Batch of 3 targets.
Target 1
Amino acid sequence: MKQITIAALAGTALLLAGAAANAQAPDFSKVEIKTTDLGNKTYMLEGQGGNITVAVGTDGIIMVDSQFAPLHDKIKAAIAKISPLPIKYLINTHYHGDHVGGNAAFHKDGATIVGHDNIRVRMVAGTTNGLTGNKVPPAEPDAVPTQTWLVGDSKVEAGGRVAQLYHTVNSHTDGDTWVYFPDANVLATGDTVSRNYPNLDWGNGGTIDGVVLAVERYLKTANDNTKIVPGHGALATKANLQEYHDMMATVRDRVKKLYDEGKTEEQVLAMKPLADLDAKWGAAQGLGTPTTFLRNVYNSFRNHD
Ligand SMILES: [Zn+2]
Ligand SMILES: [Zn+2]
């Protein structure tokens, strides 16, 4: 009976996570929010789901991503320890449930939800994961971004703090945004960067070429002092980013060659073209495991045709 309950809960977590890279056991009551001071009134928050970035201005707060809905109270409490000011803007890096789960509750608290228009479109319509077939139903209206843009870049300001928003075309999804806080030299990447193999949501516009191009933009923006908040995993440096880039470019080149030769997904899996990389990068749970990653990369080339 207990096993059945856990299995049922795990299914719920996957649904909540949507195509989350790190869907894990969903006992949110045990999650603790860890706050890391990045300097200049800017912070990284880790709990369960995508990493959160918080920037405190003189009259309000900008936050990037909101993890899962049940963690809202804990995240809110962790931010209140940093500053008593209101959260004015909540920026979404993409539509996945482990990054937008807290949207509705933070919106009800008074935050304006900001995101690329493709996030709004996917949240309103509901989505299906290309690999697992998992469906996420349409989001409630309070959760959907109301401050959106479609072409080019955007910007959010609160109490002297500036968040520069840059859309990366067809990378982890079709609606990814990375956020740069120039006064703190902090770069939040969303799920285009992970410390393991990343999830690649090809069923919703993701491509590995787009991820490599996105990381090349980060490398141009970052210097050796830049603090990089990845979508999942520990705070990163430019050197970490370079290593991740080189891995992803290698993966792209190897799998693209096989795809272009007309090899089927099963043939490519049997050839184990990433075997030498798996030990270092394949440690993630769920959608970041070596087989799933390879399947996602292979299928993402369909979006290039
Ligand atoms: Zn994520
Ligand atoms: Zn994601």
Note: The CA atoms of residues 89 and 214 lie 24 Å apart.
Target 2
Amino acid sequence: MLSPEILAKYQPVIGLEVHVQLLTATKAFCGCVNKYGGEPNTHVCPVCLGLPGALPVLNRKAVELAVLASKAIGCEIRETSIFARKNYFYPDLPKGYQISQFDKPIAEHGHINVPDAQGNPKRIGITRLHMEEDAGKSLHDGYADSVSRTYIDLNRCGTPLVEIVSEPDIRTPDEAFEYLTRLKEILLYTGVSDCNMEEGSLRCDANVSVMLKTDTRFGTKAEVKNVNSFRYIRAALEYEIERQIEVLESGGRVVQESRLWNNAEGRTYSMRSKEQAHDYRYFPEPDLPALVVGAEWQAEILKALPELPEARRARMIAEYDITQQDAMTLTATREFADKFEAAARKAKSPRRVVSLITSELTGRLKAADLELAQSPVSLAGIVQAADLAESGELSSKMLKQLLDACFAEGKDFAEIYERDKPQQISDAGAIEKMIDEVIAANPKQVEQYRGGKKTVAAFFVGQVMRLSKGQANPALLNELVTKKLDA
Ligand SMILES: [Zn+2]
């Protein structure tokens, strides 16, 4: 364990490489289905098996999704990009090379904003986004003779990917976690990938080095490979930063290498030395022409670009007068944000709909261990409840009781309200008595009303509704209040 004083002498520098599988129906360069799983080696053809004479044909949809992803992270599109062969030998790569992009990727110079330790926005640069194809899989276990054999499944071969490479702008494991969270959110909003980390649709490698804060040159970096959750990446970076500082403090030097995270032990292990840098012998792919995405095609593709999470939160904060935290809750997924907005626009007070969701609904969901999508109370039910609260027909106590009943019985609000709604007072005499009471207690508002400010009537309606515990017949109440005030 290193002391805080020693840790404070060093500055970590982190860059992230994220591989994202695109949600196309078919693979990048052939017509095979692009689908996770399946019987091994059934989603294959001569092209993705790399058989002699087979030729790749680029999937138009993959290009469109790559352009959408690029724009969503603020990248510039290169009008003419070039596919290249990245040559290396591996059993799950039958062609002996991966079709990728090298010096002319489809997009460059983007960025994502993340909150820094103080909560202020910090811009993390994105060097490039390039297109490539995935390799197959080596299956090291799951078979009776797995002890002595490794099996190969080529179903994943040729799956379209984009690789998104960040600038070394990230300074803490928390910033890395935020960057990944925001990136995933943007990709999900844009619909280019399902980002399912368990199935490998989103994979991350992290480059990390440390340097003395007094130094101006970055230290030697190590690469932490294939960590399958954002929390583990944060833990791996925390471990790796301390490990490297310890090496330097004890007079050693950090070796440039790839390391694997072992979650059970909470540490990284050396995987292979990168001292002799890989020579992938990149050269332009001779079987594919240059990829040209002209202005017209770009404009066509960008019609599918939705409002992005950060912009949407900013707009919703202004439009519904809500907090940043509320906005985070409401925009957790694009689907929920869409449903919320459609509902809120029909409500008397969108602000009240938000507060019902953030204060009453999320608390009950958490207690019942339910996701928003599993809520017994629909958004339409929340809007109904909010409108009843807004008009004063439901006291906040009554509202809570009704929602409790909804959760206890697994029923929507409309059904419970119809059954348990408070008894209405439709006795004009009883309502008039309450109106007299409120008028007597608020001479200033009466004066305003009689001075011509007719909107003050709503104040009296609200007060009487409260006094009646939400039980006064609203139509009758409105009529009587106007009558009394005009008298
Ligand atoms: Zn194929």
Note: Residues 74 and 355 are 33 Å apart (CA to CA).
Target 3
Amino acid sequence: MAYDVNRIRSQFPSLDSGIAFFDGPGGSQVPISVGEAIAKAITQPTSNRNTVTLSEQNAEACVQGYRSAVADLLNCDSQGVIYGRSWTQLTYDMSRNLAKEWGPGDEIIVTYLDHDSNIRPWIQAAEAKGATVRWAEFDVETAELPVESITKLLSNKTKFVAVTGAANTLGTRPDIKAIAKEVKNSGALFLVDAVHLTPHAVIDFKDIGADFLGFSSYKIFGPHCGTMVADPALLERVKNDKLAPSTTAVPERFEFGTLPYEIMAGVTASIDFVASMDDEAKGSRRERIVQSMNALEAYEHPLFEYMESQIQSLPGVKTYGHAKSRTPTLYFSFSGKDSVELYKHLAKLKVNAPAHNFYAFEASHKLGLGDKGAMRAGLAPYSTKEDVDRLVEGLKSF
Ligand SMILES: Cc1ncc(COP(=O)(O)O)c(C=O)c1O
């Protein structure tokens, strides 16, 4: 296993800016190969996708390349890969589709831990159909979302459950495999928001056992778009609205209008980059992704422990995420210091660590942080100890 952070950093032109990026949970920096793949795809001969002309074949190759790259990243069926402009757009679309089957007496479950894109669309769809919403609580002291917080709400009325794979401010990684098992036993559909988990861990969709799962490419080296995956056999059964002449085929039926071939080529390149992070990784792309993500976790874990211990040693600090299993993302504030002013102070030192609720809106309110939230410092694959030291020095100098 070889994780050479300097070799990885050399691939990111934006790091030449001298900025220390702790805003990766909001969106990662992008390697040069991804920019080149987007430029190539949009400037090569391109038409609407088909199989006759070279330009049609190029467009088709971008779509198929994207689906098979995502299948390798998540271990899912390439024909169950749905492209979307963002994860939020995908959850909104799917909420309206699934709600076609919901009505009074039916129940859905959401959590207070989730990003609002995995709460509000489901609530609004349920309310429109007269279905009941049940809320799973997380422990505000530990930030854990125990499996029982979901199972105690399950009943034969439950139609759908949405849970985060990792919380984007607190970092909590609920036991989604155990939750999936219980939800499936109850007969409900289970969806996992893996937007914050995918940049930090190996995702095995088939092993998790969820019905739907998704991520956003711009959080993991790619362009700004989202993806939702499901078993194609399940997608065949989901009803959705579509244009009369557009295809009934899965997954295309869920993707509206002409696809952005160049963005899809960028996603493929970003997944190829993930597979290359461990430069000794061997085998199929899926095998290299697994080795690279394991190497990344082994790199990020001690760096995160260092960052957390350094920040926890600062006077007046309060940290909020304490779950046993979590991503390298720290949410914190200082008594008597305004988080937004601190964020602005750090920006002057070329250290990016914003302060907000980051759309973990319900969680922010549960923690007593209101709409304003707190500071977030998240590690990314290009983060270094020097970056962490600059962050800590910056926090001290405010
Ligand atoms: C956990 C999580 N879910 C969902 C989203 C929203 O993703 P998108 O911008 O693709 O809609 C984010 C973005 O911050 C996130 O961190």
Note: Residues 26, 86-88, 115, 117-118, 164, 168, 193, 195-196, 216, 226, 359 surround pyridoxal-5'-phosphate (CB under 6 Å).
